[in-house]
């Protein structure tokens, strides 16, 4: 029998009305704004009413370094919540919204897979409730107001050579990375070099996902640095009087989106900051709301634990006052063999030796998560090509590192295939073992924070940065930004800055070529290697295979 695709499975899902899903969480109908029958937003008044309730347990799902073989982090996140509910625990999933760029590019959507998905899968992976469009509009309103201010006399004395705010769109389009705008004559303004970032890389996205409420949102938006004057003093969004209108555009986008899993368990899908240039986690407001409504909240962070988990702990948890109780590291036999040197086309063949070599990558991630004082369990996301010998070797390796590695079949079996992991996660979360602590203190100098992440998480031997970068960091410290955490922009494929250097390299050099101040979001970005904020489409994008069939159903989305 042919295996059904993700979209075929999602299409025949027996969904509950979203008001019923909300009622199961104790959210009355008047506090939900339905978008059709299967998705809704939770209003701010209801969220404020939850403040005095105790919090549930927060569980992070992270992963080994991603490979083309796939790891299944979102699928495991969703499956774990179904598994927890199956064993009688009240659990909610909190994940990010997918970007249209990857959905039509190479990566595909981000709603899970197989029988561990959130639905409606098509809506979530496409326009959903319009949050990304609202964020794009707010971002571009600010960009338009900058150029408009310059056009009408430039009272703020903005140096047009030092405008740092670019434009945004939610699509992969390399042609827009760097360009010249305002061409065509006097009526169109002053020509200058500019460009576009993908919406998930916008600081507005990061701000929405870190803001606690509308007042915090407006304060953060107003604190965005958009340009510099000729005397090098910053120009803020509030100086342009743009912050109020931006909040208006984001009024609905700030409200968490409630949907459900294939097994009708509640899911908050809200926000989606880039895991390279930003912190790669779903919104604080969704996570905190879920913690008030459930005993266990399972969330994920983008890419492997060296990026996603580190930023979850050092940025999101630090800023929001969150305390994680346990962490799950997702690994696959296939991906570990690839880390051990096996080519993608040969992954179907048993190779215990390559698996064992690749396990060094997993061992590094286990040690890194424990460094934050959070207990760890490994989820082996099962593929049919896995052999008993390979699974046993993987479990033996993890056992030698003082943790459990549990085989999970949620992709094929739903909650029934992940109950063992659910039991272990609940046990860890309830054990009180967690002693969460960020990697570095707030008062550590910015360059030392960068070096701490590079040495302790990446196992780098050296961080290089030219004098201009170091001077910029010192200037920000003098301006009152030294307490901010650092957000490392690095390739997700390796602990190093070289994407093809797999496994667990040590002693490598991390070159910091640029630093950026996200003053509104509240972190300093250190850009290493070749990180792009506007991806391009591959030679054969997924968009070529996505279409509407004669029955009006979407085909090719995954």
From TrEMBL:
<dbReference type="InterPro" id="IPR027417">
    <property type="entry name" value="P-loop_NTPase"/>
</dbReference>
<keyword id="KW-0554">One-carbon metabolism</keyword>
<comment type="pathway">
    <text>One-carbon metabolism; tetrahydrofolate interconversion.</text>
</comment>
<protein>
    <recommendedName>
        <fullName>Formate--tetrahydrofolate ligase</fullName>
        <ecNumber>6.3.4.3</ecNumber>
    </recommendedName>
</protein>
<dbReference type="Pfam" id="PF01268">
    <property type="entry name" value="FTHFS"/>
</dbReference>
<dbReference type="InterPro" id="IPR000559">
    <property type="entry name" value="Formate_THF_ligase"/>
</dbReference>
<feature type="binding site">
    <location>
        <begin position="67"/>
        <end position="74"/>
    </location>
    <ligand>
        <name>ATP</name>
    </ligand>
</feature>
<keyword id="KW-0436">Ligase</keyword>
<dbReference type="InterPro" id="IPR020628">
    <property type="entry name" value="Formate_THF_ligase_CS"/>
</dbReference>
<keyword id="KW-0067">ATP-binding</keyword>
<comment type="similarity">
    <text>Belongs to the formate--tetrahydrofolate ligase family.</text>
</comment>
<keyword id="KW-0547">Nucleotide-binding</keyword>
<dbReference type="GO" id="GO:0016874">
    <property type="term" value="F:ligase activity"/>
</dbReference>
